[in-house]
Amino acid sequence: MMRYIIKSGLLTLTVVIFFLSKDIGIFWDNVLFVSKMGGYLYDHDIFNWLLPDIIDPGHPPFIGFIQALGWNIFGKHLWVSHIIMTPFIYGLLYQIYILVSHYIKNYKYQLLAFILILADPTLQAQFFYVSPEVIQLFFFFLSVNSILKDNIRLKTLGLFFLGLVSLRGMMLCAGVFIFELSMYVLIKKRNLFDFLLNPKIIISYIIGAIPAVSFIGWHYFTKGWVFTHENSPWAGTNDFANIKEFIFNLIVISHRYMDFGRIGIVVFILMVFIFKRRLFNDINIKKLLLLALTSVFVIIIVSLEIVNPMGHRYFIASYISINLLSFLLLMQLNKLRKGIYIILVTILMTGNLWIYPERISQGWDASLAGLPYFNLRRQAIEYLTEKKYDLKTTCSFFPNVAKVSDVDINNDNRSIKEFNQDYDIVIYSNVYNLSDEEYEILEKDYTIIKSFQTNRIYVNIMEKKQGAVWERRE
Questions:
Q1: Model pTM above 0.85
Q2: Cβ atoms within 10 A of the Cβ of 183, count?
Q3: Nearest 5°: CA angle at 439, between 433 and 440?
Q4: Which residues make Cβ contacts (< 8 Å) with residue 335, sequence separation at least 6?
Q5: Which residues in the chain show pLDDT less than 70?
Q6: What is the pLDDT, as a whole number, of residue 472?
Q7: Cis peptide leading into residue 372 (ω within 30°)
Q8: How far is CA 4 from the centre of its chain?
């Protein structure tokens, strides 16, 4: 009976998320993964995953494929893009509950732990944006929960699809392997070679790796490259970091774990470790520590080694594990645990209100702070249309350098170009992370002719000042 109530509650939450998010446009990197990749498959052949280099980042176009499939069935609309995600949203919510129920048997405490996990702004944002993170997190936790329940078949199924979602999904597959290996050796105290020679375990990973290995091999032999090529729009982002960049990346990744309210969780765990270290001897605490570290181990290593470290949302598997870890630690405290729980949830929820000063880059796809942007952007485009401005002469910045339809999934195929000296009209919002040079150019050479604002999010329409000359700086 209780399981039925829980499943009904999760289904209701999924429906609520859909109705709250159905008008939210495609955002950030998802303009590429959802709109451009999906749009190409929709316009051509959804089963031909050989994409033009200009929209091919080397990832399998899995989310683009399911979007194109849904558009073919229901029509190409924004609400369709969101409803396609609802099975994965429900699936992820259910897998998070299964993870919680593995460690906590009391239904009241399960609910409280579940709320603490869902309070994370970066996780919340993925539910509201059309994001591949939801899909790969579903398959990731399906695999992890299957390991905890010793279900080889479900683990293999989870791995099979996880590696097909994206290159990061493949990294999470490696995280699943490292987690199971660590559990086998460090928790179960069994021999490493017993693990490596266990046919059921190894075959499950071999089968699970087939889609990922097949895609990478097919892509390489077809195109001659895997991640980027010399003319790729992403060329240089995967270059190896030097010592200075490595240290900077370490600081950035540390910040990712404390950003948007997670600092409360981190400080709490550190304080418990300092003053009540014995609590970390608990077997469940050790398991969650392992999961938090091993799940994103490969992602962290790659982020440290490349020039452009990965964003907040790539570490969500670890955030979820850490939040659940903090709850288990909290339950072992005799005093103040109610007050501390309320503080932790509150700090996390306020993370959706965190907006940095304009010249400090922010992970806008990692919280709900930027939600007003989509309506403001539509108002700006409507204003330009009413005033007879041609969008062909309008420019903007990432992620607004795209067709209008790439964000709103409609029939408006007018394009907004990338900011340069050839355009007199600029659409600017504080959700764009600009370089210092670009800020200086806007302040010096452009003036605001119309501004749209909700709370602290705004979209400005700016016009080049008469006589202003834009000088390209190499």
A1: yes
A2: 20
A3: 160
A4: none
A5: 234-238, 467-474
A6: 41
A7: no
A8: 30
